[in-house]
Structure formats: C-alpha cells, structure tokens
Amino acid sequence: MNTSAQDSAPSDSATRPYMVESTVGGADRVPLWFMRQAGRSLPEYKRAREGTTMLESCLMPDLAAEITMQPVRRYGVDAAIFFSDIVVPLYAAGVGVDIKPGIGPVMDAPIRSLEAVRALPVLEAEQIDPVAKAVSKVRGELDDSVSLIGFAGAPFTLASYLVEGGPSRNHEHTKALMYSEPEVWDELMSSLASMTTHFLKAQIAAGADAIQLFDSWVGALDRADFERFVAPYSREVLSTPEIAAVPRTYFGVGTGELLSSISQLGVSTVGVDWRVPLDVAQTRVEGGKVLQGNLDPALLLADPDVLTAKVSEILDAGQRAINAGATGHVFNLGHGVLPDTNPDALARVVDTVHAFRSSRAY
After folding, report:
1. What CATH number matches the domain at 10-102+129-159+189-355, 1.10.1020.10, 3.20.20.210, 3.40.1190.20, 3.30.1240.10?
2. Catalytic position from the list 36, 139, 248, 284
3. CA-CA-CA-CA torsion sign (265, 269, 274, 278)
4. Catalytic residue of the set 16, 18, 29, 49
5. Residue 89 to residue 123: CA distance in whole angstroms
6. Is 225 flagged in the annotation as binding?
7. Is 18 one of the annotated active-site residues of the chain?
8. CA-to-CA distance for 81 and 37, rounded, in angstroms?
9. Active site residue 49
10. Which residues contact 142 (CB under 8 A, 6 or more apart)?
11. Which of 63, 257, 273, 295 matches a 20 to 30 Å C-alpha distance to 124?
12. How far apart are CA 298 and CA 281, in angstroms?
C-alpha cells in the first residue's frame, strides 16, 4: 500500500484496477464512485464536521482524510474522491471567501477590474501543505485496489465565483467582462489556470491517482464562447506534464452542446450529466474516451424499484456507448449527491452496478 508521495508517483497510478482501461476487477466490471460521496448525506460526516466550517475542515488533514474515507468504508466504491471544495485554493491563498449554508461560496468583494485581478494572491506551496498531507494520509489508508481522485475547480468556474461575487443564475457580470474587457478576462483566467495547476500537482505528488476538473457553471456558455474564453485555460491545466501523466476527467453541468469541445481538451474521461444519454453522448465525443455518469441525483430519492430500473437503463446505455467506440464507462451521478439522500439508496446503486456484467466494461 502506498504511504508516501514518492511511492505514489503518477506512473504507479496505472497499476490500480480502476485506472487500467483493459481490466477493472475483471474485464467485465463497471467501476463507480459518486460526486459528493464524501459528506452531506452521511450521518458520520455530520458528526465529524461538528464545530468546524466547511473551508476549515478542508485544511485539517486528519479530518479531510477521515471524511474522504467514509464512503469507501460504507459503500465499497471503486474510487475515493478527495474531500475538498472548488474554492479551497482561493481560500488557502488568502482570497476573502466563505461558504454560506444554503447559498454556496460568497466573496468578500467581486473581482471586476484589471487592478483587482493583479491584486489576487499567488497560491504558495505551504498554503496547501495540509491538502497534500491529507491526500498522502488517504492514499496510505486505501486498499491498493481503490483509486484516489484529486480534484479542483476549473478556471472558468473559479472566475465566475470571483466576478459574480457568489453563485449566479445568469452569470451576467462574467459574460459582460468576457465580452467587454477580454484582456482583463484573459489575465484573470491565466492566473486561475496557474492556481489550479499548482493545486492539482500538489495532490498528484502526494498520491492522487487521477484528477477531475470540475467546471460546474460552464454550461452557461455556448460552444463559441467556450472555445474562445475557456478551453485554452482548461487545456493549459490538463496539458501540464505532471497532470497529463494521470487519468483526467472534465465535468460540467449542462454541457451537452459542449461535449465535442470538452473531449478535445486533453482528457481521458468525459463527465456527462443526466440530460444526455450516454450512447448519445458518445456520438458527440471525439477520439474514443471513457464516459462517466450519469444518474440524475434526484432519482436517489425515488422508489427503490424505480431507482434500480434507471440504473440498469444507464448501464445498458453505457454498454451501447462502448460498443460504438467509447473506451469505457465509469458509473457516477450526473452531478453531486443531494443532502437529503438516504445512504441506503447509494448502497442499492453500488450493488446494482457491481452486479452488472459487460462484455467490455472499461
């Protein structure tokens, strides 16, 4: 079992079954994990988090490691997703941000000028040392058959929080800045790409076997805007040698019209939300990628028989996608676990997926 950053160098990640494209627990098994599996819906998470804020807990190595491990112990998923938050790099660097219950990340002040962009702090190694320690601790505790996925918010989603000052339905300030002051936008995105790269490299060096880049709000853009204002910076992150050496997933919500562009960013896996069936997504994804997804999280609250039937439908769609050229299917949700989800529903999904046998699961 790997217990150090040196032992868990990127080249070792390919030895973990979840990450080997030809075999996963035998060639016929579909691997799975859940976005937001660590936290929110788990009673043990709520007990562990008592007395700490979300952002504080992300920078407490022992606590972050414990929360990361909880769903692995409970469900037997094939990968742990490191417990963190999209805005942790901003918070660690010293940007004024807080996560408000029921709202999400809220900035002390929006960033909408060149002066404000140039005043953003640079993320230093010592500021994310607690993250590296937590990743190393988790990798040491995980069985060798379970992968550890590191993650970061993509530059666009970080930019949208900074420019809007918090969550936004229309992203009006973000789009206005992109169009009206493209030089300011480009400098902001370049700065955030550097921050994201630094954050992911630290996790990989500490033992993360793969990474996922979350671009939660990029579905607010059309394809032309994505290509001009977003893709160059996400591609910059994903092409960094240390990051390019491990499996890479890119996920955003409402990105059905962007799947072709996303597949050209230098990713191994394309995350698909629940709006597009996997076999349809395959026709939009270029280059033969692994597809990840895509159960609607709301269906975890449905009748158990309805849930099982929907999971089976997605597994069948994943098989059709593989038959049409996808290089694999990782079962996941089409977004994160909702707070009111009964943990037993996730256990039912795990049992259903692991019982499924495919002629070429991954």
Report:
1. 3.20.20.210
2. 36
3. positive
4. 49
5. 7
6. no
7. no
8. 8
9. yes
10. 1, 69, 72, 80, 148
11. 63
12. 21
Catalytic: which of 18, 78, 85, 248? 85
Q: Is 38 annotated as belonging to a binding site?
A: yes
Q: φ and ψ at 197, to 5 degrees?
A: -60, -45
215 is in an annotated binding site: no
- Residue 85 a catalytic site member: yes
Measured CA to CA, the distance from residue 335 to residue 37 in angstroms comes to 11
| One-letter identity of residue 129 | D
40 assigned to a ligand binding site: yes
Q: Taking the domains of the chain in order of start, what are their residue ranges?
A: 10-102+129-159+189-355
pLDDT tens string, the chain, 362 residues long: the values are 333 333 333 334 444 545 434 333 345 789 999 999 988 889 999 999 999 999 999 999 999 999 999 999 999 999 999 999 999 999 999 999 999 988 999 999 999 999 999 999 999 999 999 999 999 999 999 999 999 999 999 999 999 999 999 999 999 999 999 999 999 999 999 999 999 999 999 999 999 999 999 999 999 999 999 999 999 999 999 999 999 999 999 999 999 999 999 999 999 999 999 999 999 999 999 988 999 999 999 999 999 999 999 999 999 999 999 999 999 999 999 999 999 999 999 999 999 999 997 654 43
Alpha-carbon distance 292 to 327, whole Å? 11
| CA–CA distance, 122 with 343 (Å, rounded to integer) | 39
Any known ligand binding at 113? no
Q: Which is catalytic among the residues 45, 75, 91, 161?
A: 161
Each as own residue / partner, the long-range contacts of residues 115-118 (CB below 8 Å, 24 or more positions apart, any chain) are 117/184, 117/187, 117/188, 117/191, 118/187
Structure tokens at 287: 């280059």
